[in-house]
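Readers outside the structure-tokenisation community will struggle with the description of the input data as it stands. I therefore recommend that a typical entry be quoted early in the introduction. An entry of this sort, consisting of the sequence and the corresponding backbone structure tokens, reads as follows:
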Amino acid sequence: MAFNGTAATDVLTELYAGTDFSALSWLEQSWVAWYVWIGNPVIATGLMSFLLHEIVYFGRSIPWIIIDAIPYFRQWKLQPNKIPTPAEQWACTKQVLFSHFTIELPAIWLFHPTAEGLGMQTYQVPFPALKTMAPQIFFFFFFEDFFHFLAHQALHTGVLYKHIHKIHHKYSAPFGLAAEYAHPAEVFILGTGTILGPLLYCYFTQNLHILTVYIWIVLRLFQAIDAHSGYDFPWSLHNIIPFWSGAEHHDFHHMAFTNNFSTSFRWWDRIFGTDTKYREYRARVDAAKGAMKNATKEQQDAIERKLMAEVEAEGVIAEAEAEARGVLGGKKTKVQ
């Protein structure tokens, strides 16, 4: 690996003295090239972190936009009579970008000095082995899921709901782009669960590379966007891993307002009883379909829409009660 220029040479000398570049993989050499090209580790880490988030977030959302535009996929749509319009998706995009640039972008520039202060590796190579990263990433999933379970319930109470979380519940039938459609304060609160796990892990173990954090963030973004997609396919992950949450679990939360507060896993809702209405609803749907085995698909869909409408009506009341505890009542906005 060769670099030209005095500045690049200085960076190589400062950051990568004694590194055997011939022993590095292509990805590791590209990593070095990025930090050398930018010339400042703080800027390089901040810019890479922000670009990664934006590219993955919108890159993963685009397939769901395409799927929403194709009628064939409605057979797997959890609320098939509620398809987001282009105008709704554009309004959602603007709010998401506002939160990204007002909360995430300023905060992301503090990440490198904070991470290094806690002992995290950033520009360093070589990368850790997969067997090192895998348990770390599982811990991040576990930590974030429990943090989100607690914080999400708090956001459903009084003032926090009325002035913050209500924005995220604008759509009773969520769609991929709406994963981070939220008040900037909510982005900060729930985003804390995503990054606090890695920071705490690094503080106590002094053994964490930022690449592991990036892989975790990519997986977390995929999880959040897919959970808001509104689709449940036969190959959806929860049909393979029973304790995985997924869209089928989280869609009910938006439809009914209550229950299912976790993100990745179902176990906290089951342990603390915050999925009782969800399980009752699924039992009613299964019973209704079982009693109508000989009915046409149109008749089966009609009874499921009826049950959905009942649950959503209860959700509107529950939302109004939650908001009333914050001073006034409110009513849910529905995607038509």
Notes: The radius of gyration is 23 Å. The chain has a mean pLDDT of 89. The chain has one domain: 61-324.
